[in-house]
C-alpha cells in the first residue's frame, strides 16, 4: 500500500460507510473493506478500472463524477474519498460541495503544483513539469485543474469547508521536516480531511 | 464436434423434461393442476451442489441456451456467446441450467400443450403467467435438481427481470443476481410496441380468437409482423445502417416501383419474421409480451423500487449497453439506484456497443471481459 493511501486508510473509522470517487482498480476500497470492515461503493469511469475493481471484489458503479453525485442521498456516507482525482474533474468546487453533501467527512488528496521540483521545472527548463505524481505529458494529461496547497485551502475557506487535518508527502511518499514546515514548497502530495464548517 | 469444443462450445446437448404433479397457483388466480418444464444443463453439478447457475431466457427464447442439438445443427443456443468452457458462464466451473418458461412452446407446458382437464390443446385458454409465476416454477425445478441455492441467477432482457424477481422472492436461494440489459418495468413506449405486436397477431383472420389449432390455419402473417416490429426495436439505428444501409436487393438498374422487396433491410425483416413463424406459437408470444407488461416489482410498494428490493441479500451485477434504446442504460441505472438506496451490494457496467438491445446476445469484448470477471468472483466464492 502506498503511504498516501495508508494515511487515507488511517483516517477511515472501523465499519465506516465509504464512497470512493474515481476508485481506479478498487485497491483502496479492498483495503478498507478488509482492514477497517468498511462498506460502500467505488465510482469509476474507466472500463479497465471497473473490471479490475470487480476482480478485487469491490462494489463498483460505472459513473461520471463530473455529472455529480445525484445517485446518493444527503449524509449517506461517513467518508467520501477523492484520491488524486480533484485535478481531473470539470468543477472541483462543485464536486467538493457534493462530497460534503453526501458524506459526513471528506478525504481529498492531490498533487501540489507549487512543489519546488515543479517550480524548478517550469522556471528553469521552461517546460510543463512532469513528476511522479504528474506522470503525463501536457498534451495527453487527464488533469485540467492543477492547484497548489494555498489554492486548495483558499477554496475551502470560500466554500465554508473546515479542514480537520492536513498532511503532505514528498516525492518518495515520506513526510520530511521541510515538507511539514513549508508544505506549499516541499510537499508533492497533499492530503486533507475536511468537513462542513 | 472437436472443432466446436475447441471454440468453447458445450457441444451436443440433449434437452430434458420434468413433470410436476403438485398444482401451481398463479398470480392470475388460476391454478395449473400439473405441468412440465423443459430444460437443458451444461457442465457438471459438484458434490455440494454449490456451482449451479440458472439462466433465464428472454421473450422469444427457450431452454436451448448453448451448444447444438445435432451435429449438423446450423445455429447454436441463444447464449452461445456467454455459456461454455472459458466463457463468462464457464462450464468447466459451473453447472448451468436453462429452463423453458411456463407458457412456452418448446416443451414446457403452454398454449401448445394438452389441458389434462379437457383433453384438448390449451390454446388461448392457457392462463396468463407472470415473472413471479416463472420464479415459482423454476424454484420447483431447483428442488427437483437438488439445488438449494443457485451460485447465480442470470439473464438478459426479460431474463434479467426474472433474475431480479428471484432475488426479491427467494433471497435465500441465490448468491448473486446477474441482470443484463433489463429494466425495473416497461416504459409506456415498450408497452405500446408490445400492443402493436399483439394486435398484429390478434387481428390476423387466422388467429380465430386464439383457437387456430382447431383448423390448423395459424396466424402466420400476424406473428410475422409482430416479429418484424420486435426486430426493429432490438437493433440500433446505427447497427441497421451498418448492416444494410440503403443497399438494394439485386443489382440491376433503378427502382422497380412496386412493393416487393426493394431494400436489403426489407428482405432481412421478412426472413426473420418468416423463420420465426416456423418455430414459435402465437399464443405464447401474446402471453410472454403480457408478462413483460405486467412486470413491476415496485408496484406492490407504492412505486418504490428500493422498498421492493429491501429484502434482497444477493449482490447484483448489472450491465447495460449504450445503444440499447428498448431497455436503455437509464432503465438499468434505475435498478442500480434503487439497490444503492437500500444499501445493497451492486456493481454496474455500461458497455459501449452499437448493436442495440441485441448486444447482450453477442460476444462484445468488454462485455465478455467484465461479465467473466464477475463470474470468476462468484466461482471463487463457491470454491470452484
Describe this structure in words.
Chain B: It is an enzyme of class 2 (transferase). Chain B: Keywords: Acyltransferase, Amino-acid biosynthesis, Cytoplasm, Methionine biosynthesis, Transferase. Chain B: It catalyses: L-homoserine + succinyl-CoA = O-succinyl-L-homoserine + CoA. The complex is a heterodimer of chains A (197) and B (384). Chain A has 8 helices and 7 strands; from the N terminus they run αβαβαββαβααβααβ. Chain A has helices at 3-10, 27-36, 47-55, 92-102, 116-125, 149-158, 177-181, 183-186, and strands spanning 17-21, 39-44, 60-62, 77-83, 103-111, 161-169, 189-196. Chain A has a 7-stranded mixed β-sheet, sandwiched between helices. The radius of gyration of chain A is 16 Å and the shape is globular. The model of chain A has no long low-confidence stretch (mean pLDDT 93). Chain B has 384 residues and is α/β, with parallel strands linked by helices. Chain B has 2 domains: 16-185 and 298-382, 3-Layer(aba) Sandwich (Rossmann fold); 191-289, Rna Polymerase Sigma Factor, Chain: A (Orthogonal Bundle). Chain B is globular and about 65 Å long. Chain B starts with a helix and ends with a helix. The model of chain B is unreliable at 1-6 (pLDDT under 50). The interface between A and B is medium-sized, with 18 and 21 residues.
Output the CATH class name of the largest domain in chain B. Alpha Beta
Q: How much beta of chain B, percentage-wise? A: 5-15%
Global morphology of chain A: globular
Order of helices and strands of chain A: HEHEHEEHEHHEHHE
Major β-sheet profile of chain B? 8 strands, mixed
Count the DSSP helices of chain B: 12
* Order of helix and strand elements from N to C terminus of chain B: HEEEEEEHEHEHHHHHHHEHEH
Domains of chain B, number:
2
Active site (chain B): 157, 324, 357
EC number (chain B): 2.3.1.46
Pfam family, one (chain B): Abhydrolase_1
Catalytic activity (chain B): L-homoserine + succinyl-CoA = O-succinyl-L-homoserine + CoA
